[in-house]
Amino acid sequence: MPTLRGWAALGVATALGLLWVGFGELEMLGTALFLVAATLTGVAFTRLRMPHATVTRHLYPAQVHEGDHVVVEVEFAAAGRSAANLTVEDSVHGLGVARFAAARAAAGQHLVARYEVLCRSRGIFDVGPAVVGVTDPLGLAERSAPAGGPDRLVVYPRVERLDGYPAVRGNDATVHTSRPTYAPHGGEDFFTLREYQVGDDLRKVHWPSSAKRDQLMIKQLEIPWQARALVLFDQRSTRYADAEAFEQAVRGAASVVSHLYRGGYSPDLWAGEHAAGLRSGSRYAQAMEMLAGVRPMEHVDLQAAVTRLRRNGVGGGALVVVTGMPDDGVLGALRVLSADFSRSIVMSVTTPGDEQVAALRRGGTLAVNVGSAASWAPAWRTAMELSWSTASAG
């Protein structure tokens, strides 16, 4: 179809035609005919020279967090015929558009273009499909068509590095530990893969995964009780003062999931009506993707959800509830679930001195309380030290 320049040329041709009718100047008619012919020739040129193309896309790194940069590599290959005055447009919906141009692409030639995207916010973004176009030499006409398929860019929430783990009880109620321990021999059922730790049996190394990740990976055949954890994220919009408070809570949930995962725990995540399953092989990726797309909800029956969770047999070393301003719903969830966990923690985004937070502390719950613009790490560290002093006193 004509470009903006092509439509302008057709408009000028129409005006010159009207002037020719009025004044009879042949030069006006000739110029009008030339502009019309040039535009039509451009339309025909783009129709004939439109290439059959394949477009593939790669994103580096595969895992990216809020505030990071990701490099998108687009590879174009023309099949069947060469193309001139080629353009390739690739878009990350909600983040931006990249446009590339090439003077010529021979049949079978591979062209590679790269662009960088700043991931300003968490979320799940569609990338592509790419749009391939050609223009005529005069820029009077263009033709475009989608090529290749779309990809997904999952931007995880920003994660803080936390320090310290809650003191929990294992199967032996007289023993406290802040790190989960794995039996050296394990059971008979495969549970998951984890990174090698000093003292692990080398016969348990999973060599294909170790070669792929470039680090030793151990087959874990059983999960100890104290290694299990549940992170419950409160999506109720009424519990958050504003959008920034909700985002702070999301970052807190992502930080604690990452922290527990690195520490050898097998954390489950519940958010709204969705949960990362206890036996899923890619638990961490599923949990972080869930947090990447989580949104506040107006109608969430927290009590019913907690009842379903307990019916499914949750339990273990640590229960972490992430919320905004704690209310009776959070207190009720703790009453129902805390009996199945050795240690309960509430991470809340609210003002210092909140009465509900004080009530949680009086009840023996570890309370990690920050404001919308504060850091989770110092408050988390203080709460973990408190858990150890409490455990030692018992």
Summarize this structure briefly:
The chain has 9 helices and 20 strands. By secondary structure, it is of the alpha/beta class.
Structural write-up:
The protein has 394 residues and is α/β, with parallel strands linked by helices. The protein has 4 domains: 4-48, no CATH class; 50-155, Immunoglobulin-like (Sandwich); 168-181 and 224-393, Rossmann fold; 186-222, no CATH class. Helix content is 32%, strand content 31%. It is built from 9 helices and 20 strands. The chain has helices at residues 4-23, 26-49, 207-213, 243-262, 283-293, 302-311, 328-337, 355-362, 376-393, and strands at residues 52-60, 64-65, 69-79, 83-92, 96-105, 110-118, 123-127, 130-135, 142-147, 151-156, 168-169, 176-177, 192-195, 217-220, 228-233, 266-271, 274-275, 316-323, 341-349, 366-370. A 6-stranded mixed sheet has the order 17-16-15-18-19-20, sandwiched between helices. A 4-stranded antiparallel sheet has the order 5-4-8-9, covered by helices on one side. A 3-stranded antiparallel sheet has the order 1-3-6, with no helix packed on it. Strand 11 and strand 12 form a beta hairpin. Helix 1 packs antiparallel against helix 2 and helix 4 packs antiparallel against helix 5 (283-293). The chain is elongated. The termini are far apart. The model is unreliable at 171-176, 182-188 and 277-281 (pLDDT under 50).
